[in-house]
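Two entries, shown back to back:
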Amino acid sequence: MGIGNLRTADAYRQGLGNRRNASGRRAKLKKFLGVSLAAAAVGVCAVGSADANTSTGQSTSTNTSTTASEKARVDVVDIKLKNEQHAVTDLGPAGPSLGDYNSFSGRAIRDGREVGLGAGSCKTVHIEGDKATTQCVITVEIGRGSVTMQSLAPKGGSSLDMAITGGTGAYAGARGTAHYWAIGTPDECMRVRLLR
């Protein structure tokens, strides 16, 4: 083996070392870019979540992105409720008892115009002393479809949060929450947060 061959061998080893360093730099760059993209995605989700929790008093839509292939949409709909009919069915002994029913219906009003009917019933499912708990199921028409919801509710409460369990029409497959306040008064309202 001559001096020329040794120089060629040294050059080969140095070149191999440079390629190894280059591939190490590429791996570090890929890792840095991956971490940066993940951080950016978390930032987008946090901003989207903050927007979804903003209440403007009007119907809004917010698109948030958790991954490139999955998108969630939040619709916020405010409805005024005009109670029209109410009946109490007292089963069993007189006064509050298990199985008693409250049935009710009224008009749903959005942006000053009637958009549909809201109706439901609450059944007494638990009594402890003078406190009663009911299981409520309500369906409300909101223009392009209806939304169904249910919840346990303390009897006589002035506000209530309900789980949205589904819907029809434009709200098919909906989920989310509905918050009622001023229940049973002329100022009764509902804010629906639909996740679709």
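entry 2 starts here
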Amino acid sequence: MPVSWDFRVAGPADTAAALDAYRQIIDHLAATADFPHWHTENRPSEAEVRGWVDAGQLYLALDPSGEQVAGVVALNHDAPDAYRQAPWAVDAPPEQVLVVHALGVCPAFLRQGVARFLVDAALEVARGEGCRAVRLDTYVENAAARALYPRCGFTDLGVHTLHYEGTDLDQFHLFERVL
């Protein structure tokens, strides 16, 4: 029987749990294969996570008991400048596009459908906000993410050069899901 995850916005009281979730993910990546380079780049930073929580943009996937964070994702309308040059299928203003950031699954919950659940939940958030598309990027070496998103109905627009502050990584696949 599939697990029934809970999905909700992280509030200020969840900040420590969200930071711990990202720390677990980063430590696991450091010990295994850090395809997204979160470990080497120390991403997302504590300041980023706190900013997402404060803005009401960080979401949690919780286990059925509601006590353990199984996964995390930031959702907003903030896209890197290079997104403006991409050949998107939908020409939409930022407020009509939900952008997915730093989707991660805690190691204890890997291979249990949490990533797919987070993507599906993000699509529901986008629909609820009246968005016309959901977009994201993933580092070229992140094979797991590059396999997940097309299974969730996203189109891979290929490799693009993106510049994120604080990192030298600049080659990312762009993905779009038209709603």
